Batch of 2 targets.
Target 1
Amino acid sequence: MENKEIARVLGETADLMEIAAEDGFRIRSYRNGATAVEGYTERIVDILGDPARKVTDIPGIGKGLAQVLREIVERGSCERRDLLLEKFPPTALEFLKIQGLGPKGIALIFEHFRISTIDELERLCQEQKLRTLPRMGAKLEEKVLRSIAGYRQRSGRYLLSYAETMAAELIEDLRQAPGVEAITPAGSLRRGRETVGDLDLLVTGPAATSALDRFLANPRVEEVLAKGGNKASAKVGKEGLQVDVRALLPDTFGAAMQYFTGSKDHNVAIRTRAVKMGLKLSEYGLFRVEDDSKVAGATEAGVYEAIGLPWIPPELRENTGEIEAAEEGRLPELVELSHIRGDLHMHTTETDGRASLEEMAQAARGRGYEYIAITDHSKALAMANGLDEQRAVAFARQVREINKNGLGIRVFSGLECDILRDGAMDLAHDALAELDLVIGSVHSHMNMEAAEMTDRLLRALECPQLRILGHPTGRILLHRDPFPFDFDRIVAEAVRRGVWLEINASPERLDLNATLVRTAKAKGARFTISTDAHHPSHLKSMRYGVSTARRGWLGPADILNTLPAAQFAAALQTRP
Ligand code: DGT
Ligand code: CA
Ligand code: CA
Ligand code: ZN
């Protein structure tokens, strides 16, 4: 069991305790425990298994929680969680995923209506019964209905990072199968989509089918769904991610890659194009209709070439203009991970990060970066011990000193400054002016009407020190929808004022998303890709930000942190 899964169970238990209106102090201890476990660099399982070690040495883990951790590792749950799951319908945890209710609202609903399913909750809203409860009204009913729709759409999907990690683990194992040459992920994972429905792995080699049995024997497999001559499907991991493994002959590998990478819409358009040329495309190859002779199939590039197109990067294959662009020779040059020369959003132990400036700098240097910006929180985030003016100014001075001696990487002093409810910046402008780089982010009051949120962001953009709008839509993938605002207007204003838009690369955010990136680029926006790292290990999330940028058709020139350090520093000094 990985730390992340343990943390999830702890967090769920805290949620259930909140529905049950249990003691706030105890709930907090579970939440803190979850954060501590999730962020811990070693596996909790290993520490528990080592008689010479104690989990209580981890800050945030007391005696009580140590026992709970042991239970969770042994059987995936703990007594407190079990008791609460008896008290409430087993769907209580699902209800928590419906935005707008919160644990208190859910408790109230359970108390007044004998409901246990999302369908029943939906009916309550449709029949306008929710509004009969205290502090609930028509607006909430509408919001809950919207969240239920969103919930249905995203349930059964997984974060890109989760799918990618699982794929890497399975591929590592399948490599050991005899007669296997290559294993490649296809489908939405290869296209870099922000969430993945199921994993599609393609295997080739002289005895590729030997990979099928090996896959089904993997200890991660929870349930075998199907096994045929050249395909096996199973549910994998505690979360039940479906994985389809296909064994292919080398001479059909390219056609299969093309077919199973999708997207479906891209493939439909490609097949139609082939038909017009008297060709027939399937997962087995590209064939001439008149005599069934094979034209291409061993490589993907060969398939595209035979229908008169250059190879199209998987991230673009959504049938949103990429085929026309390919035909006219105007496919964009896309940004690559190797173009990125710095990371511009990260936290340290000054606020809610878990490593020091020096440790973050060292990790960034290890990735070959030329520069970083340290951007801790501002004082509105009191729980994170955010910086006030005095600390911000002192930090700017400290960074100037650090750069004199040098850490082998240029450090920019930054701040992730809260955009307050009314759009004002959390810190005074003269303090912000001391810093090299100010990111403005919304972390509170996200339930505003679109018009009000637009005004709030417009006011924030007026701050002359603001350089980057951080995670602009506030979404948390699979958990929280983007907050609504007039995107076009904010982009236009950001462009006018020379404010860059962040592509937050944290796999839970990926904010802006690819579609908005493309819209914003068309309006002249410029971007930064940053990880929002709270730990050195988070710096590697950069690649998800890069996938998102590529899906948004961005090239290196659109992204400020592809610039060499000196040019980037110059760009910081320049405003329109
Ligand atoms: P996902 O799994 O929902 O994140 O999205 P994909 O794109 O990975 O979709 P998936 O796993 O259903 O199918 C993999 C690829 O197979 C898909 O992108 C396109 C290709 N494909 C082409 N035609 C069809 C078809 O008729 N049915 C299915 N299921 N896949 C098709
Ligand atoms: Ca898939
Ligand atoms: Ca599939
Ligand atoms: Zn933030």
Target 2
Amino acid sequence: MPMSDNFDDYRKKSALAGDTPDKSNTSDKSKQLDQVRSDATNEALTTNQGVKISDNQNSLKAGVRGSTLLEDFILREKITHFDHERIPERIVHARGVGAHGFFQAYPGNEKFTKASFLTDTSIQTPIFVRLSTVQGPRGSADTVRDIRGFAIKFYTQEGNFDLVGNNAPVFFVQDGIKFPDFVHAVKPEPHTEIPTGASAHDTFWDFVSLVPESAHAVMWAMSDRGVPRNLRSIQGFGVHTFRMIDADGKARFVKFHWTPKQGLSALVWDEAQKLAGKDPDFHRRDLYEAIEEGLYPEWELGVQIVEEEDEMSFDFDLLDPTKIIPEELVPVTPIGKFILNRNVDNFFAETEQIAFCPGHIVSGIDFTNDPLLQARLFSYTDTQLSRLGGPNFHQIPINKPVCPFHNHQRDAMHQHEIHKGQASYQPNSIDDNWPLETPPSEKNGGFESYQERIDGHKIRQRSDSFSDHFSQARLYYQSLAPHEQKHVVDAYTFELSKVQRPHIREREVKTILANIDMDLAKQVGQNLGIDVPNLEENYKQTSLKKSERLSMQAFIPDDIQGKKISVLIHDKTNTETLRTIINWSIKENVIVHLLGPTLAPVTGVGGEVITCDGMQKAEPSVIYDAVIIADGDNLNMVQADGVTKHYLLEAYKHLKPIVFLGNKSELVDQLGLMPDEGTLLQDDFSQVTEKLKYLLRHHRVWSREALMEAIPA
Ligand code: HDE
């Protein structure tokens, strides 16, 4: 690429020449803005009745200074509509972000299901995904510690299938009748409506310390899974055991898993807290921007399959939603993949109005008697009645099946269809009995519930097979890498330190944590000043001590696509270096932002004009995965700049790789940083690319955390 006096021209050209993914969506800002312009461009402004409006700035008044007239139907229509713009937010999972994509099945799935979207590899099934936090209201921050909802609507040719899962494979309660209690406890406290988006408060810990069945799910929430780096790098799970039915009517138990190609990564806690202030929309923005950049996130869908005859062969109950099936016992069989490749046009119409329900299933998939799932089957439709204002929410465009649907349901609030004919009942002879039922025996036949044999007494009781609440919580903790275990200790310590009532803190540590793992309990107890009884003799002996894929370390991506790097630049930055970095970023599909001291362009060593993508004060290091400090004749400037120094210190504290180009060991000393495998000091960017790639794939410089821990107090 020839040198150019104008660095910006160079950057545009190199982006065009580079081997980038399909960026037809383009990152060019003006084009993006064009895309979101109103679809009413070139149309006259009218009322909802179609009357053209001549003045949208002034209401109708009696004289220029007079009172406003009731007669002003234009004003009244506009204000009335505005007054009703909000609908009730979801009672849980209120804060979410959505995107469109498609699912593609792998060959061979007819071995266990007859669902056509899973067996016909020639079709791409459109999907809509909504990712959410559980606790906070619509306006809460994205990066709070919480489980993430991961709901997928598959618009199949045989009807909509909703897989309404979470990023943890287990839930807090075993029976749906406990769900409102759990939600009341975790939501903001009733007298203050505090805290927003957080579980670090008395009522949550009061409840979970009294309900041992929550121990396993709480452990997931307190681990790094509770603070994902972004929503492109979270796993999803169907949680409950479902069934799949093949064409011969044979049923098998399945657990759904979906795993990101991007690998799994988490925020460090300090970073999560800072982001909640510096960019409360961090996750929402990240997903939107990745899709706009053409960096489409991808997940592989898989199932753990258990033959019906093996139902009782585990030391936990398959119907218990607080249990996983360790992958050592039943591996995950991949059945397809999905990508998200289109942002919504309108948040309200799509993300807010989408209505998921675990009861939306298609032939080839069926339920089990998991008592949590059974309650969910009722709850979701019920909630839409008040949230979306009546039973016709399936007619809202985002909820509409892509296949035709016909029945005799009529009328009700917000009916969009104009049903014709007299026969809105069956049987009828007026319309030849149409629409007709389809026998299940036919190809693509009607839905038939799996004929499970039920034989029991009506009884309000939990099965004994649901009673081991601690073994799998222990398995989870013991399967984590040492740095992940440390984060769990830190998270329990932080959360419980916010609990005002000492007896709640003590109960959690002495009766829950001590029953899970003594090391964990002792460390948290020590941090909180609580003596912990040794309960090890109560521990149930289990054959499996570790399950490899519970640790996020088991999910290191193959590449670094979609990682974000900031390059700190000042006047007299070496333009040639920036060119090398940008060429590399295009090749690796990495997002690079050049950040100056202000938004004003900086001057390169040869006097070139370099436009900044942002300024260091406004785009803090917490937004990025790594920081590069460019070389040039600018060391004095960098040394004098407090913002840059803080930037680097914070990146170091958050275990991020930092590249000091121009071998700035003087600066490293001055900042008081301990050089480690993540502080890359070189003259030339090409000397660090391999190491930087390695560190970015592994996401953090974990050895630095251990190094900092090892320093004697
Ligand atoms: Fe939900 N849940 N839930 N839930 N849930 C809702 O439905 C409910 C449960 C999950 O992006 C609500 O439309 C009950 C488990 C997600 O729109 C509500 C029980 C799992 C979402 C509801 C559960 C989930 C919801 C609120 C226990 C993981 C967001 C608004 C019996 C497998 C969906 C709405 C979206 C939303 C009820 C337990 C996941 C009130 C009664 C277990 C991802 O109907």
